[in-house]
Amino acid sequence: MKGREGSTLTRVHVVGAGLAGLSAAVALAARGVAVDLIEASAQAGGRCRSYLDPVLEMTIDNGNHLVLSGNRAVFNYLRVIGAEDRLIGPDEATLDFHDLRDGARWTIRPNPGPLPWWVLSPRRRIPGTRAADYLALLALTGPQGARRIDQAMARRGPLWERLLEPFLLAALNTEPRSGSAALAGAVIGESLARGGKAYRPRVAHPGLSAAFVDPALAFLAARGARVRFGQPARALTFEGDRVTAIATAEGDIAVGDGEAVILATPPWISRELVPGLEAPDAFNAIVNGHFKLAPPTGAPPIVGVIGGAAQWIFAFPDRLSVTVSDAGAMADQGRDDLAHLFWGDIAAVLGLSGPLPPWRIVKERRATFAATPEQNAKRPPAATRWGNLALAGDWTATGLPATIEGAIRSGQTAAAVIG
Q1: Where in the chain is the domain with CATH 3.50.50.60?
Q2: Are 185 and 140 in contact (CB under 8 A)?
Q3: Backbone φ, ψ for residue 100 (5° rounding)
Q4: Beta strands in 130-232, from DSSP E residues, in sequence order
Q5: 10 Å Cβ neighbour count for 123?
Q6: 399 vs 409: CA distance, rounded Å
Q7: In what order do the strands lie in the sheet with 95-99?
Q8: Which of 95, 169, 264, 311 is the most buried (most CB within 10 A)?
Q9: Exposure of 372 in the CB half-sphere (CA atoms within 13 A)
Q10: Axis-axis angle for helices 72-81, 404-418 (nearest 10)
Q11: How would you write 213-235 as a 3-class SS string?
């Protein structure tokens, strides 16, 4: 197998075992390339993993990550590692919403195909909208350049308030007013524009690690990959147009002829390791709340919340969870206050009463890069000027915001670029 340098690619050192690094490692191992996976922490998965929480005494995910049925890179990855059945969700693209301001509830029911005849039915579309309102989505099609969403389309009316704003806020983890129109258009182009079959919601079962991480590590182990945990990369050695060594806490790892490196570390670390690398440098937080209480019978698996502290409520078999995107101000609030705020919303939406159950608040202050036009312009491609070095990560130029689909796609792209 020939690498970018023209020599036979014998081994690739993948630095970082988040989803981007795992995706790259899996793609390479599936092609018969020897893989050396190097991870700074004691576990794989990065921001997409599960852990045993000592307070709740149960395994929870560090965040509530939603996948859509049309995420092709995600399902290709899961198919390769034998975990395609570990994403579950409804057979149809039904989306439930509850407006806490006036108590209104509704469910949108898109049809499966790309011709959106569902908008013609008042029983299927968003209350208060007309079929013609949905033509507003056309404003996000085509090239957008450096425009913000508010420069591309009007941000008013029930379609915006009851679907587009919560949908884009979750997808971009950025206030839609300042969000990139190009990234918003990419998300809509790969979901809403393709019909309901492309955006049936999917969640990992029984958890993120069981779906995305553990099967990948087993796949790599079966193919002889070496996995080194607890070894942060401290420096890369460059000679001419090659990387020749990786300095770690346990010593240098030589990168010989026919070997390559995929750097799948966060942007702030990658900038320290790669000379002159431009990368996103503004980030937004995500806050999650987990409550140890089984959902009531008939609770929707996911509910979008309008007008509350919570934005999305997830009903898992053994717990209820809340996710809030672009949560910078909220990340500075006390956890006890947040638990009470979130539980108030959960109780109102699901009709619950009783005391606050055991809870855990998880704050990810640098969850994703800010999906603004300015930050999007700083995203580098996978290929670099060094022939045996490629970049991976949801912060690289995937064409998507920082999502699971983007992370996995970036790893697959880096593996293709390197050889």
Answers
A1: 11-49+208-281+372-418
A2: yes
A3: -70, -15
A4: 201-204, 226-228
A5: 10
A6: 10
A7: 105-108, 95-99, 302-306, 312-316, 319-325, 283-291, 359-369
A8: 264
A9: 12
A10: 70
A11: HHHHHHHHHHCCCEEECCCCEEE
Mean per-residue pLDDT of the chain: 96
Task: Give the integer Cα–Cα distance in Å for 335 and 289.
Answer: 9
Query: What is the rounded distance in angstroms from the CA atom of residue 88 to the CA atom of residue 67?
Result: 10
Q: Tens digit of pLDDT for each residue in 95-105?
A: 999 999 999 99
> Amino acid identity of 305?
V
What pLDDT, in 10s, does the model give residues 293-314? Answer: 999 999 999 999 999 999 999 9
Cβ contacts of 122 within 8 Å, gap of 6 or more: none
CATH architecture of 11-49+208-281+372-418: 3-Layer(bba) Sandwich (3.50)
Neighbouring residues of 85: CB distance < 8 A, sequence distance ≥ 6:
none
Please state the pTM of the whole predicted model: 0.96
pLDDT at res. 419? 84
Residue 109 has pLDDT above 80, yes or no: yes
Tell me how far CA of residue 240 lies from CA of 7, 260, 352, 387, in angstroms. Answer: 16, 14, 65, 10
The amino acid occupying position 39 is E
Element (H, E) at 180: none
Convert the pLDDT of each residue in 138-167 to its tens digit. 999 999 999 999 999 999 999 999 999 999
Q: Is pLDDT of 4 > 70?
A: no
What does the block give as tokens for 32?
Answer: 């018969």
For helices 19-30 and 404-418, angle between their N-to-C axes, nearest 10 degrees: 40
Residue 397: phi, psi to the nearest 5? -80, 75
pLDDT at 8: 85
Please report the sign of the dihedral spanned by the C-alpha atoms of residue 207, residue 262, residue 418, residue 375. positive
CA dist., res. 338 & res. 330, Å (int): 8
8 A C-beta contact, residue 217 and residue 44: yes
H or E element: which one contains 275? none
Distance from C-alpha of 332 to C-alpha of 347, rounded to nearest angstrom? 24
- The answer to whether the CB of 394 falls within 8 A of the CB of 408 is no
